[in-house]
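Final report, closing paragraph on structural work. Over the funding period we assembled a curated collection of sequence-structure pairs, and we close with a single example.
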Amino acid sequence: MRQLGSVRHTPEQIAKLAEKLAKGGRRLSFCYEAGPCGYGLHRQLTDLGHDCIVVAPSLIPMKVGDRVKTDRRDAVMLAKLHRSGDLTAVWVPDSAHEAVRDLIRARATAVRVLGKARQHLQGFLLRHGRVYAGKRGWTLAYRRWLTTVRFDHPAQQVVLQDYIHAVTDAEARVERLTRQIEDLLPHWSMAPVVEAVQAMRGVAFIVAVTVVAEVGDFSRFDNPRQLMAYLGLVPSEHSSGATVRRGGITKAGNALARRALIEGAWTYRMQARVSRKLHDRLENLPQAIRDIAWKAQVRLCARFRRLAATGKARVVVTTAIAREMVGFLWAIARQVQVAPAA
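Its predicted structure, as stored:
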């Protein structure tokens, strides 16, 4: 094992280093940890004809007693683990898939900002004793009520209006990004998968496009349990000998897709039925996909009621349903032929 020093992270310097190391017909294999620099380095090296993997940091084998961490030691450790085949590579999306995923994540960020803006407004009103008498907030009636709220001091009236503007601006941002996703979908190679998984109850457009963008190639999972683990929906376990201890879900892997699925799983608390909206989504789908979706709905609605009847917390029941949803989504996605990205 030889240490060759450091190199600046620029395309020119990377190409120069790769050319130098490849002299004499050497076959090069690179690896680096996934991080804020993204996949540009991976794409450059593979375009140059070299092997390269992006490593999942959370799955790098670590020595329990090792408390010294430096760039040099990390580089040597990665090289040794790569040589022995002990590193776990992450899936690297193509540039088009990454662009769609960035757009979907931007919308998710906008939704969080909207939630915070609404909390700020409601907290301000509550602090000053302005309480809405209606049943639900953010309806048309609630918004009309906001226009009637008055404060004695002009500064507080300015604060109220500023909070209202923050909410309306955030809502406009969410709507704008949603339209962009809808406009872009027909031109995306994964569009058939997005349409197919919408056969599932609780998997409308936003949930579907989020899960597909975050999971990517469903065929890389040999079975649904692998996908469940990737989404962090499997129980944690601390067992020894004959004693088996299982805890909450691991929450490993992709949090955005996991949250979307858990939100969708709430719909299974009602009885199994095909609503008008779901009927419209099913209209042009193959019968095989419809059959999987209906089988899922019958099973999951019954399972939700059965688990809830045992007294389990609703959030626990919903998470269990989300885990089973993944198995049916995997089965549906495997029914779809995806054209290679252009």
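The beta strands are 29-33, 51-55, 235-237, 246-249. The mean pLDDT is 93. We thank the funder for supporting this effort.
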